[in-house]
Amino acid sequence: xxxxxxxSRKNPVRQLYDRLSPxxxxxxxxxxxIGLMAPYTGTIRGxxxxxxxxxxxxxxxxxxxxxxxxxxVHAIALMNLAEMCxxxxxxxxxxxxxxxxxxGLGIEFIKKARGTLTAECNIPIxxxxxxxxYEIEAVIRNESGDTVARARAKWLVxxxxx
Length: 162
Prior knowledge:
With 162 residues, the chain is α+β, with helices and mostly antiparallel strands. The protein has helices at residues 2-5, 12-20, 26-37, 39-42, 75-93, and strands spanning 47-52, 55-60, 98-109, 117-122, 132-141, 147-159.
């Protein structure tokens, strides 16, 4: 069904978000679609709150499935949230005919993460399909606004291969 919503010559992530987000529950549907496109990413049940060129915010609710033995959100769930946020920001911002792949990801854990968490990412907008690496930051904050983690993601952008 998703293929009916998307023109294969244009940025599929941008098309999907732009079509779904104005609808009631549209961002929830978009978030679910991201989880289906990238199944491991879907395991955290991240919710895309906002996307625009060069920016994304993604929320993750605290639940038993993402917790560790210390009763806080697991380090890899935080890493997954940061990757999802940076990936949505990057793929939404790509020009038509470009694709991106994650080539590196590092994270600094600042304090225990508990409760609903929000990741935010601002990126330079790729202006062409030219092969180039972008290093971007995703910051994860708790409900009080305290930074709990900072991630650095490297995304390699290039032209879609035939």
